[in-house]
Design goal:
Radius of gyration: 16 Å
Number of helices: 7
Largest sheet: 2 strands, antiparallel
Number of strands: 2
Distance between the termini: 17 Å
Shape: globular
Strand content: 5-15%
Length: 176
């Protein structure tokens, strides 16, 4: 396994474990707390969790198009078309949580299946505004993981506002 692939596997492990911690904490909130408008970019804890899942599935869909033979993406729930980055995939938290677990499994298998050659190759896709983009695949994969981390950071603030401490959030605490 090459160093780029190891890095992506580390990001996948962080994603999986931190999401488990986060969803366990959020499961203890009432539905009204999860959906309370708190002034964040996506408004609520629930909407932010939905957005992260939506974006992950959009990126996985782009990777499936770039690498159609990848076994990890063959039967995955992917998003190829969407109307907005605010689309709600699941209004029910239990379903959202189950789908998060499923998608985290796909991401973990995808990261393990990636090769350094694939990561170095170039991929093309249209962004959410319909603009054609092209760059190295590793940039897109790293962006997917960075995007998750960015919005989970927002979630830690929202949960703090609701009186809950997520605990340690540092990448190194999850992969070393």
């Amino acid at each position: 396994m090459g160093s780029h692939q190891q890095q992506m596997c580390g990001f996948a492990k962080y994603n999986l474990e931190f999401n488990h911690r986060l969803f366990t904490l959020v499961a203890g909130l009432s539905d009204s707390e999860r959906k309370k408008e708190l002034g964040a970019f996506f408004g609520s804890v629930h909407a932010t969790l939905n957005h992260i899942l939506l974006a992950d599935r959009i990126w996985l869909g782009r990777f499936a198009t770039a690498f159609p033979a990848m076994a990890s993406l063959q039967q995955a729930e992917l998003v190829q078309r969407f109307s907005s980055l605010r689309d709600e995939l699941y209004a029910d938290f239990t379903e959202l949580s189950a789908q998060r677990v499923a998608t985290d499994g796909v991401i973990t298998r995808f990261a393990a299946e990636l090769t350094d050659a694939q990561l170095a190759s170039r991929m093309k896709y249209s962004n959410s505004q319909g603009q054609l983009r092209e760059h190295a695949t590793w940039v897109a994969v790293a962006h997917m993981f960075n995007h998750q981390t960015h919005h989970r950071g927002q979630l830690t603030t929202l949960l703090h506002q609701l009186g809950h401490d997520v605990g340690v959030t540092d990448f190194v605490a999850y992969v070393t």
